[in-house]
């Protein structure tokens, strides 16, 4: 799981933010496929990967830290 945080002034409900998020996930998927053999030279990639992304608003940094700590344990 990859987490990114944005400054609180950024409006994540805009189409621009959605486009940026979509591009990030697309790029991540491309790099994942391109680098597969570097990390798993013997193992064949059997199915194309896909990744999901979503934007979530958290009220403050403490909530983000608590959430990330919880996900780390999960």
TrEMBL record:
What Pfam families does UniProt report for this protein, alphabetically?
Thg1
Q: Name one GO molecular function term.
A: magnesium ion binding
Biological process according to GO:
tRNA modification
Signal peptide range equals none
Annotated ranges, domain tRNAHis guanylyltransferase catalytic: 13-59
Alphabetical list of PANTHER family matching this protein: TRNA(HIS) GUANYLYLTRANSFERASE-RELATED
Name under which the protein is recorded:
tRNAHis guanylyltransferase catalytic domain-containing protein
Instruction: Name the species this protein comes from.
Output: Sorghum bicolor
